[in-house]
Design brief:
- By secondary structure, this protein is an all-alpha fold.
- The chain has one domain.
- It contains 3 helices and no strands.
- The mean pLDDT is about 90.
């Protein structure tokens, strides 16, 4: 996983994608492709790539950057999760029960 996973996830979203949390026309709950593995695959890919960079550079600053990225993405995921629950209700609840948030089968 890594940056390529994020790109795949972006394409899987199609017209549903936005840089901000917003309702698109004909918004759909995507559960295929990378979204069948995790609910936030773009973030999984970005964090995996950032972790790889941090491990490759062997610098404390890179690990701090990873921590800050994780914190920022966690806060954005909280907003997105609330939004998706409001938009899709029981369908999103069922999806969230079967698909982990960020790390397949773990979290």
């Amino acid at each position: 996983m890594g940056f390529g996973f994020s790109v795949w996830a972006r394409f899987a979203l199609g017209a549903n994608w936005s840089g901000t949390v917003t309702l698109k026309e004909n918004h759909q709950l995507i559960q295929e492709g990378p979204y069948s593995w995790v609910r936030h695959p773009i973030y999984t890919g970005l964090l995996t790539a950032t972790l790889g960079t941090a491990l490759n550079t062997d610098r404390v600053g890179a690990l701090l950057g990873l921590g800050l990225a994780l914190l920022g993405l966690h806060l954005k995921m909280m907003v997105e999760e609330r939004f998706m629950l409001e938009q899709f209700g029981p369908a999103y609840t069922a999806y969230a029960r079967k698909v982990k948030k960020l790390i397949p089968f773990v979290y």
